[in-house]
Amino acid sequence: MPLPAQHHRPRWWTELMLIAVVYAAYSAGRLLARGDVTTAVDHGLAILRAEKALLLNAEHPLNRLFTDTPAIGIPADFAYATLHYLVTPAILVWLFRRRPARYRAARTWLMVSTLLGLVGFTLMPTCPPRLLGAAHGFVDTMAQYSAYGWWGGEASAPRGLGGMTNQYAAMPSLHVGWALWCGVMLWRYGRTPLMKALGVAYPLLTVLVVLGTANHYFLDAVAGAAVMGVGALLAPYAMRLADRVAAGFAQPAAPAVPPVVGGECETSAGERIPGQRTSSEGADDSTQAAAR
Question: Which among 212, 174, 153, 241 has a CA at the least distance from the CA of 33?
Fold first, then answer.
C-alpha cells in the first residue's frame, strides 16, 4: 500500500531519541517475554510437524548445505549476526536524508510491526530448529563456526552475553520482517536498477540465511512477512493517533482579531463598501466641490 507523504522533515535528534526508546523497550520486552523451555520446544515441534504436512521442509537441506560447506555457512553466520542491525538503520538514515516526505510513514510502519512481533514472542515462545534435539537433524551453524566470529553457542550474542538475549523468540522472524521492509523501501524509492535489484535480493537472501543457519522455520519467515503486512495496515492509524496526542499537548493558538473594515471611512452615496478615505479627507473634498 502506498505510504502517505508528510510535509515537514522531522528533527533528527527527536527521531534518534524515539528510535532508541522504542528499540530499548522492544529489547527489554523481548527478554521479559521468555516462556518456559518445554512450551517453546512444543511450539517448535508443532511448527515442524505442520511444515512436513504441508511439504515445506526447506530447512533440512539448506542446513545440511551450510553445515557441510564452510564457504557458505560462515558468511551466512556473519550475515545473520550483522545485517539485521546494519542495513535497517542505514535504510532509515537514507530515507530521512533523501526521502523526507516518506520517512515518517516508513518509520511508523517499521515500529508498529516490530511491536507486533514482540506480541508474537510473548504469546508463542518458540524453540528454533538449532536448539531442538539432535534427533531432529539440525546443526547449529552459529555454534559450529563460532571460532570465526564473536558469537558463541547462543545465537548471534557475543560470547558470554547469551543471557542478554531471548533464544526462544523465533516466531515471527523479524530478521525476515525487517529485511522485507528494507526491500520495499529500496524497490519503491530507489532510483537505479541496482537499488531495485537489492530490494528484491536482500529479503530473499535473508530467508535463505535464517533457514540455513537453523535459526528459524519457514513458517517463522512467513509470519514475519505477515506481521509486516499487518503493520502496514495499522501504521496510518498509529500516525493519526500520534498527531492527536501531539495536538493535545500543543499550545492553543491565539484567536485572530478580525479587521475593522469601515474604521474612520465614509460611504459615498451608492457605495456599499466604505471608500478607503478618512472623514477628514471627505470633508476636504466637499469643500473643494462647493468652491467650484
Answer: 174
- Cα–Cα distance for residue pair 148/160, rounded to 1 Å: 16
pLDDT tens-digit profile of 212-269? 999 999 999 999 999 999 999 999 999 999 888 878 877 665 566 555 555 555 555 5
Sign of CA dihedral 158, 125, 84, 100: negative
CA distances from 242 to 50, 52, 103, 245 (A): 40, 44, 15, 5
Tell me how far apart the alpha carbons of residues 22 and 208 are, in angstroms, rounded to a whole number. Answer: 28
Q: Which residue has the cell 532509515?
A: 92
**What is the DSSP code (8-state) at residue 265?**
B
Task: Please give the residue that has the higher pLDDT: either 283 or 24.
Answer: 24
Q: In this model, does residue 64 exceed pLDDT 60?
A: yes
Query: DSSP E strands: which ranges in 175-272?
Result: none
Is the pLDDT reported for residue 210 higher than 70?
Answer: yes
H-helix or E-strand spanning residue 39: helix 37-53
Q: Which residues contact 125 (CB under 8 A, 6 or more apart)?
A: 33, 34, 35, 36, 39, 40, 43, 168, 169
- CB burial class (10 A; 0-12, 13-18, 19+) of residue 188? middle
Q: Determine which helix (DSSP H) or strand (DSSP E) holds 42, and give its type and residue range.
A: helix 37-53
CA–CA gap between residue 89 and residue 92 (Å, rounded):
5
Query: In 3D, which of 245, 236, 248 has the Cα closest to residue 108?
Result: 236
* End-to-end Cα, the chain, rounded Å: 77
Cα 121 to Cα 29: distance, rounded to the nearest angstrom: 9
Can you tell me whether residue 13 is helix, strand or coil?
helix
Distance CA 174, CA 167 (A): 13
